[in-house]
Design brief:
Helix content: 25-40%
CATH architecture: 3-Layer(aba) Sandwich
Distance between the termini: 20 Å
Radius of gyration: 14 Å
Low-confidence stretches: none
Strand content: 15-25%
CATH topology: Glutaredoxin
Shape: globular
Length: 157
């Protein structure tokens, strides 16, 4: 079985790297967070997600998929996130674009440049997936806001 992030090198805020296929293993939940520094809804949701992650950090791997317009903007927004989060590097536009196309998630301003894409969701979107890319919860942000920490139990089933 091919893993969604197989062959993808991810980085964190301190420039450590990890191979994407190492995430979501050992019973951990894997989440993709589609967001951007310039998005007011993303900025508003960030503290909620940070508080949730602070409690469940040992049970969850998060990968930030940026819609930022520059490396500096992406890095600035990453600094607002927990240090343990990973991101698709800004320079890996191919992987960022492929994830956006695969799940139909992007900012409205990106639709034309990502064509062909069937946009299903905008940003912010938190999506819980299996390592092979199967969707567990396509609207995990709403689930967190509605169920709080109980969301983790549902995702681990």
């Amino acid at each position: 079985m091919k893993l969604l992030l197989e062959g993808v090198t991810l980085t964190d805020a301190t420039d450590r790297t990890v191979q994407g296929d190492a995430l979501g293993q050992d019973g951990k939940v894997l989440a993709l967070y589609f967001a951007a520094n310039w998005c007011s809804d993303c900025v508003a949701f960030q503290p909620v997600l940070n508080r949730f992650y602070d409690v469940v950090h040992d049970q969850m791997d998060v990968v930030f998929v940026s819609s930022d317009k520059s490396r500096a903007s992406q890095r600035s927004y990453l600094s607002e996130m927990p240090r343990q989060w990973w991101m698709v590097p800004f320079d890996d536009e191919e992987t960022r674009s492929q994830l956006k196309r695969t799940f139909g998630v992007c900012a409205s301003a990106e639709v034309e440049t990502l064509s062909p894409i069937t946009r299903k969701k905008g940003i912010p979107t938190l999506m819980v997936i299996r390592p092979n890319g199967d969707i567990v919860d396509g609207d995990a942000a709403e689930t967190i806001e509605r169920e709080g920490l109980k969301a983790m139990d549902a995702w681990k089933k």
